[in-house]
Amino acid sequence: MELRARDSERQRSSSLRLDSRKAGPAGPSLELLTAVEFVDSELQMLGNAQHYDSQTGLPNFESFRKLLGILLQDGADDGEVAVIWIDLLNLRREFSLHGWTGAESLVRRVANALRSSADDKTLLCRFSGRCFVVAMQAGKLARRDRRRIQAIVEALKNAHPSFQQAEPQIAAGVAFYPADTRSAEDLVRFASLAATRASYLKSHAAIPFHSSMNSLIMQDHQVEVEMEYGLERSQFTTVYQPKIGLLDGSILGVEALTRWNHPAWGPVTPGEFIPVAERCGFIHRIFESTMRNALRDARMWCKQGYLLPIVTVNVSANSLRRRDFAGTVRRMLREWQIEPTRLEFEITESVMFDDEELFASRVRQLKQIGVRVAIDDFGTRYTGFNQLRQLPLDVMKIDRCFVHGIGRCRDTLSLCHTIVAMARRLGMRTVAEGIEEPEELEALRRIECEAGQGYLFQRPVPAAELETFLREWPGRMAGFGFEMAGEAKETHGLARSV
Fold it and tell me: Can you list the domains of the chain with their CATH numbers?
């Protein structure tokens, strides 16, 4: 059913309008209230199923868009409106675990919680599969209104009536009319940008839009465009950082790292391009390219007499989620004729924390192939001993935030000592990241951390420069307090086994 002609809409709303100057200071003007009542009546006229979401019974976005436009026009003089964008982050995981039934149940629970938490002056909408949009009378600077908005978000998070049902994981952003924009389209878009920021920050609060978010998204888009261009033109390269045995100075392996050298921008840091690559889906292409380069170079070093025991490649959650992940690993190992036990994948602790079942499944698949698995950035989340005990992990990497200044802080030293002891009890080796000072090296030796890497030994370098490091390392070992045995001289300081 079509909305009535604009003339009749304006006539009806105009007949109900009072001078905004007559509104009391304690609440919104009667003009805006009658505008919302008019919107409600229009919503009832949308009886055609084309205007409603079939799963939740909420208006779809096409209906919401029209009604939001009317609401903003009728409240243009002095009304303030908030648009809240809500992302249901764990919908895909619920579908993976329980199929359509579990996903639909989660969506309906969120929709029902929205209805229960919103008053009859609030517009609700299901925008798409995992997105909901809410419009309500609220001011950007009014604390009471901000509390009302947060109350809606909290109500959604609590929409799990029994322990057997998943708790909705929500990211919410809010934009305000007219403080942020007078455009209905931009109002919804800005709220979406704020929700994206909330997801990135893992915030439990509804994040308000800020103008910087708009410029950041444009920057991300430019990075995305240039990244695709760069992947097609080999702007991405692989560099290597050696891992050193802290007890004897032997070279235990190398970690392969990706670098992007843009022809106009110069070097782009991983912190700038990795998050964008994960969001836009390029991260798996980067992973495959890095693993292919690492296996190729490992084969080359072997032919030159440098048999590096381990080559480590970082893998993202996006790559782990691919159904063909294990098959890709097998294919590349066969292609470059590398023994599976010489390949190691580093998976961040956050992946394990966010999706235990996926993590456990992929770890077991990799162990069946023979590939080693390290848990990266350990200590930055809250992974428990029992979780680790159930998984066949090989290495625990101590995050650089704990290594920095460890020689000067007893508390940090004690924490790292605990991590080393826990890893040893679980049958895992420990590798410390980001060693930059001799005092840090000495402290890590005292707590018997087995291995480490960092600028103190060698910055990440291309394959050709790494060969120079491998040749020179036996002569440098003494400078770090390592005693080189005759066997180490014969093998260039490379460990024969790990």
Answer: 6-209 (3.30.70.270), 220-490 (3.20.20.450)
The pTM of this model reads 0.64
Q: Above 60 in pLDDT, residue 27?
A: no
Q: What is the number of other CB atoms lying within 10 angstroms of the CB of residue 492? A: 17
Q: What is the DSSP string of 8-63?
A: HHHHHHHHH---GGGS-TTS--HHHHHHHHHHHHHHHH--SGGGB-TTT--BBHHH
* Strand pairing class (236-245; 251-262): antiparallel
- Which among 397, 350, 393 has a CA at the least distance from the CA of 372? 393
d(CA 493, CA 44): 78
Instruction: Give whole-number Cα distances, 59 to 41, 42, 73, 295, in Å.
Output: 13, 12, 20, 53
* Residue type at 159 in one-letter notation: A
pLDDT, one tens digit per residue, over 58-103 is 888 888 888 888 888 776 556 789 999 999 888 877 776 677 788 8
Cα separation, 491 vs 26, whole angstroms: 82
Residue 330 or residue 152, greater confidence: 330
DSSP per residue over 245-298, as a string? Answer: ETTT--EEEEEEEEEEEETTTEEE-HHHHHHHHHHHT-HHHHHHHHHHHHHHHH
- In angstroms, the CA 296 to CA 332 distance is 10
Q: 30-45 and 6-16 helices cross at what angle (nearest 10)?
A: 140
Average per-residue pLDDT for the chain = 83
Residue 337 DSSP SS3: coil
